[in-house]
Amino acid sequence: MSRVQNKIPTCRNCGAENSFQVDRTTAAGDLTCTVCGTVQEENPIVSEVQFGESSSGAATVQGSMVGSDQARAGYGSRQNAMESREQTLLNGKRKIQKLAIVLKIQPHIADAAGGWFNLALTQNFVQGRRSQNVLATCLYIACRKERTHHMLIDFSSRLQISVYSLGATFLKMVKALTITNLPLADPSLFIQNFVESLNFGDKSKKIARDACKLAQRMSNDWIHEGRRPAGIAGACVLLAARMNNIRRTHSEIVNVAHVAPETLQRRLNEFKKTASGSLTVKEFRQSKAPAPSLPPSYYKNRAIEEKLRKQIEKKELALRRYIELANKHQLIPIELPDILKPKEERERLEKERQEEEKKKKEREDQIEKAEQEKVDAVLQSVLMNHDLTEELLTSELQRIINRQKQNLEGLCYQTPAEKAKAEDFKKQVELDKPRNLVANLPSSKEILDKVNSDPLLNSSDEDEETRDVELTGEALEQKIRIWTGLNYDYIIEQEKKRLKEEADILTGNTSGTRKKRRIGKSEKNPTDEFGQGIESFGLLDAVNQVGEDGESISAADSARKMISKKPFSKKINYDTLHDLFTHN
């Protein structure tokens, strides 16, 4: 029995039930309450088919169909009478149906894609984007919801658009439409493409089968959850290739799967910690799926907890050690343990503490006495060679004490300026100290005499550090080979330049290519102003045609003068040029 009950119409004014009556006397057909007379509905829209008759006697249908997604009724059967939004929605659904037929997608999935396109159109997601990208994205989302085998690369290859552009549109649509609970793509869909891209040859089917089984085991062990399917598929293909004795490096898998090497290695490490990861190849293929392992996040959190526990234990150990040292050496006063101890034990500890302090004081006195004896011995040795009386020594000592006392009193009452001046004086004294020691240092001539004038170091050098660093024998030859190998290209280039220069010298082409030097303001010739002046009057050409003797220069002389300024060229026959000038 169905629990759904029809809602009983009730009057909003008096609350009477089933007391409505349609007013048939008017064309409006208002719905009124028979108890209180309140009008409940005015001008109701009749959802029924009515027929009429035209002037020619033909039967016609009165009214028009208004769909649930239409704003108003259309005028006539022409599409141009529809709104632009309705035309866009109709065209989009038609294109989705065509694309679904080509990719062999079921009709109900195409209808769901049309709903996603309608939602995208409502959110203005279509504006500013290519319609092909949006339509393909809507159809891909519908396929993901139904867990089909279609991927973005299939839509990209069919529509001839970039898969990266299609993927960017997909991510933006998911974010804009707030699409949640989107099922993850099955890694087995990527495995077949990766196997074909890596060219395994006859073992492609076997590797794909092993990779799919690995992906299933990873899914059972919670490795697939929250991870990109491309990384899972890449790790499965790498393990399946090694299970079949085919070598594939991480870089090859990375280039195909488009994931980072760290991500690939992390998936392998996570699978290594599972029960399936400890099986051999034969056991993995023959045995059934073992019990699922715990998620990788569980082991990660346990590792973090273990690390924190070790740090806490280390700090507790250090704290206990500190307390032991404090109790032993009395670094800090600990009153509570002493209060808890018996009175006799407290007295004994106090007595031992006093004896220890007494012994410590005696040791300090002995050290001070020994130092004083050394000072007295030095003073006695100094005073033996001088005729000094006791009164003179006493007065001198008293004078030194008074001077030190005055200095200390002056330091106490110094102003900031005087204190800064005193510090500057001390700094200057420290800087002048090396100058006072110059007399005791060896001269430059003595130091230079010890330096070997031979540019090549040999075993007769007196510098021990240089002799230790010097390479000899095989070490020297090995160093030369290493240096030559590192600078091989530079050495070859320099040798080519040297040979070219020698060849140019032999052939007489020593001019080379000279870079034109820019003349600065300070290097300008004073006669340039004169040249600019006569140029303004058109006289510069006439001046250039006058020789050193004042006579005009002929064309042949001008040509010879020009050629003499040019560098020598082996491509010009100068004898022929001379004969040419002579005939002219």
From TrEMBL:
Residues 347-370, 450-469, 511-531 are annotated as: Disordered. The keyword Nucleotide-binding does not apply. Gene3D superfamilies: Cyclin-like (1.10.472.10), Single helix bin (1.20.5.650). GO terms for molecular function: RNA polymerase III core binding; RNA polymerase III general transcription initiation factor activity; RNA polymerase III type 3 promoter sequence-specific DNA binding; TBP-class protein binding; TFIIIC-class transcription factor complex binding; zinc ion binding. InterPro entries: BRF1_TBP-bd_dom, Cyclin-like_dom, Cyclin-like_sf, TFIIB, TFIIB_CS, TFIIB_cyclin, Znf_TFIIB. It holds the Pfam family TFIIB. It is found in: Nucleus. GO terms for cellular component: nucleus; transcription factor TFIIIB complex; transcription preinitiation complex. Transmembrane segments: none annotated. It comes from the Eukaryota. Keywords: Activator, Metal-binding, Nucleus, Repeat, Transcription, Transcription regulation, Zinc, Zinc-finger. GO terms for biological process: DNA-templated transcription open complex formation; regulation of transcription by RNA polymerase III; RNA polymerase III preinitiation complex assembly. Belongs to the TFIIB family. This is B-related factor 1. It comes from Hyphopichia burtonii NRRL Y-1933.
